[in-house]
Specification:
CATH class of the largest domain in chain A: Alpha Beta
Number of helices of chain A: 15
CATH class of chain B: Alpha Beta
CATH superfamily of the largest domain in chain A: Histidine kinase-like ATPase, C-terminal domain
Number of domains of chain A: 4
Largest interface: A-B, 23 and 23 residues
Shape of chain B: globular
Number of domains of chain B: 1
Number of strands of chain B: 5
Helix content of chain A: 40-55%
Shape of chain A: elongated
Strand content of chain B: 15-25%
Largest sheet of chain A: 5 strands, parallel
Strand order of the largest sheet of chain A: 2-1-3-4-5
Structural class of chain A: alpha/beta
CATH topology of the largest domain in chain A: Heat Shock Protein 90
CATH topology of chain B: Rossmann fold
Number of strands of chain A: 17
Largest sheet of chain B: 5 strands, parallel
Helix content of chain B: 40-55%
Order of helices and strands of chain B: EHEHEHEHEH
Structural class of chain B: alpha/beta
CATH architecture of the largest domain in chain A: 2-Layer Sandwich
Strand order of the largest sheet of chain B: 2-1-3-4-5
Strand content of chain A: 15-25%
CATH architecture of chain B: 3-Layer(aba) Sandwich
Oligomer: heterodimer
């Protein structure tokens, strides 16, 4: 603190005394203000910052004692010195009680006065330093708490569940994801014991086990727990070890692997199904060859010929199946990997219609197409859509007896287009209609009538439709026929204004 | 071979029925067929069969077991010999060893499809002798 930065207020009702003090202090380059009484001094303190106040005790309007009290209310760091002409021990003690730092009896020498002021300034310096340190500490604490709340925010935003416990097994932290995963009814779990709280004994036990692993930092083996709702959680439980190597708690990170498990199971189921479907025709072919080659049908050329012909049918079926499986894999590929562009579905349908004309004619089927002229374009992959309609139209022809009808129509509104393929074929039961889009599912009557099929055509159709953000429906009645309807979203023209 | 011996073939695949029928008829057995588990149960209960050759996977993955269990629970039919055939194996999730699984499988013999004609006949004869 430089002398020219120091501001001192002198409060005295005696003008001579005031000016005397001012002169002494001005020699030391301090800035000095003057006030005639406590009230006047108080106004000055309120409007300006002072380091020191030198005040007389006996003054009119507001005396020194009251003034000392008021100073503390305004600024506790102002250091007051009391000057009095009636210097008694009592006065001095009272003044110190009121917050005076020091006192000086009149009359005093300039040196005495200066010494007192310098000591008081030293005090002032210490007060300011203390204040600065306090502010720094506060600032650090604020930063620390911001850091803490930032970490907490991150933990709370995690999609993985996080549960932290102390060595007593009490919960220190549980993020919302964990609360949700464990379907806890009570949200206020902090401080509560893990045991009996998580509605999952398995998980509770593993946390307790982790607590016992005081000596090592080992991560517990991976395991899975199933919640009441059938969700599969994979907890990763780690003991928290402090710098002394003691276990001070545990952190359990819960990952919900339900979806992965589902996909895994679907994959396994699909593989089972595929291997069975692939092996059945191969087994039949081998069986027929066995009976011919092992001489069971020796001397029966007609029978042998029929068996060889049946083997050929099964070989062909196998080929169809392999092709359908490849189509299915292709249909399952992500949309981003395919070229999607505006497609006029009518032209795709016309191509499909032309392609199956001969087949329909062979079966004497009344095969017609009736397209809406102004069908809005959709966003799609032409090749995939072509495969979709080929599957539906070939099915319609296949399952429709001779002289039946197959009709292709389109309709549209502002949002969607509707493609209907209607036949007067064998139809199917409600139960079959509900499952007919499942992989390898074949309607009971189609199987009974020995109409060959892989059970994949409609599964492929469904995948293609879904890749185009649409949906497919079937309406069917046994022996009456089926109508498959594909609904696809049209391209929204963003240049058109919404009215 | 005696023509009085009646065998029921239960399989959802007409070709396997045709194959096994050809083999068994060549040996003089009287062969009938069923395409679903319910048809198999109905026929076994109504007819007087000496042997049932049963496919494991018909309309359901484990349809063969449904049939086998129904037969074993029937006081009149529980002694009927059953030969279970399947094209299932390790990769498809079904692996059986007759020695260890026979008790719960409730069948007398178990083989992978397709069986060579001589082997099928051999197994059939063995089961018929056991009666």
């Amino acid at each position: 603190m430089q002398a020219q930065d120091v501001k001192i207020l002198i409060v005295d009702d005696d003008e001579i005394s005031r000016i005397g003090c001012e002169r002494i202090l001005e020699v030391s380059d301090y800035k000095v203000d003057l006030a005639e009484n406590g009230l006047d001094g108080l106004e000055k303190i309120k409007s300006s910052d002072y380091d020191l106040v030198v005040t007389d005790l006996m003054m009119p309007k507001m005396g020194g004692m009251e003034f000392l009290q008021e100073i503390r209310k305004v600024d506790e760091k102002i250091v007051p010195i009391v000057i009095t002409g009636y210097a008694t021990i009592e006065n001095a003690v009272d003044a110190v009680k009121m917050g005076a730092y020091d006192y000086l009896a009149k009359p005093f020498t300039p040196d005495e006065f200066r010494t007192k002021v310098e000591r008081a300034l030293e005090k002032r310096r210490l007060l300011l330093e203390t204040e600065q340190l306090r502010q720094e500490r506060d600032k650090n604490m604020l930063e620390h708490s911001i850091e803490k709340s930032r970490t907490l925010t991150i933990v709370n935003c995690m999609s993985e569940g996080v549960i932290a416990t102390n060595t007593a097994g009490q919960i220190l932290l549980m993020n919302p994801a964990a609360v949700k995963m464990l379907r806890l009814k009570h949200h206020n779990v902090i401080g509560k014991k893990v045991t009996g709280l998580l509605s999952n004994t398995d998980l509770e036990e593993k946390i307790s086990a982790a607590l016992k692993k005081v000596t090592s930092c080992e991560i517990l083996e991976r395991f899975e727990v199933t919640t009441g709702e059938g969700r599969v959680l994979q907890p990763n439980i780690t003991p928290i070890i402090n710098e002394k190597g003691e276990c001070i708690g545990t952190v359990a990170v819960l990952i919900d692997v339900t979806e992965e498990k589902k996909i895994e199971k679907m994959k396994a189921d699909f593989l089972n199904l595929v291997s069975h479907e692939l092996k059945a025709p191969l087994g039949a072919i081998e069986g027929y060859l066995n009976i011919i080659l092992d001489g069971v049908t020796a001397g029966q050329p007609e029978k042998e010929k029929s068996f060889i012909s049946k083997s050929r049918d099964r070989a062909h079926e196998l080929l169809d199946l392999v092709n359908d499986l490849l189509d299915l894999t292709r249909a399952e590929r992500k949309i981003s990997a395919k070229v999607m562009s505006p497609v006029d579905v009518n032209t795709v349908l016309m191509d499909t219609f032309e392609f199956y004309k001969n087949e329909a004619k062979t079966k004497s089927i009344n095969y017609t197409i009736d397209l809406t002229a102004a069908l809005p374009k959709i966003r799609g992959n032409r090749e995939e859509l072509s495969r979709l309609f080929a599957n539906l139209v070939s099915n319609a022809i296949k399952y429709t007896p001779a002289k039946g009808q197959v009709l292709i129509t389109t309709e549209s509104n502002e949002k969607q287009i509707y493609i209907a393929i209607k036949d007067t074929g064998i139809g199917m039961s409600k139960e079959d209609a509900a499952k007919v889009f499942d992989e390898f599912y074949r309607a009971g009557n189609a199987v009974a009538k020995k109409i060959s099929g892989t059970g994949l055509g409609l599964a492929i159709a469904k995948k293609i439709v879904e890749e185009h953000n649409g949906y497919i429906e079937v309406e069917s009645e046994l022996e009456k026929g089926s109508t498959f309807t594909v609904i696809l979203p049209v391209i929204i023209d963003s240049t058109k204004k919404n009215n | 071979m005696s023509t009085e011996i009646k065998i029921l073939l239960a399989d959802d695949d007409p070709d396997f029925i045709e194959i096994n029928r050809t083999i068994l008829e060549a040996k003089g057995y009287d062969v009938e067929e069923a395409y679903t588990s319910s048809e198999a149960i109905t026929k076994v209960r109504a007819g007087n069969y000496d042997l049932l050759i049963l496919d494991l996977m018909m309309e359901e993955k484990d349809a063969g077991f449904t049939v086998a269990y129904a037969i074993r629970e029937d006081e009149r039919l529980k002694e009927l010999p059953i030969l279970m055939l399947t094209s299932a194996q390790e990769k498809t999730g079904f692996t059986f060893k007759l020695s260890k699984d026979q008790e719960w499988m409730k069948v007398d013999d178990f083989a992978a499809k397709p069986l060579r004609p001589a082997e099928l006949v051999e197994r059939v004869e063995k089961l018929l002798k056991k009666r």
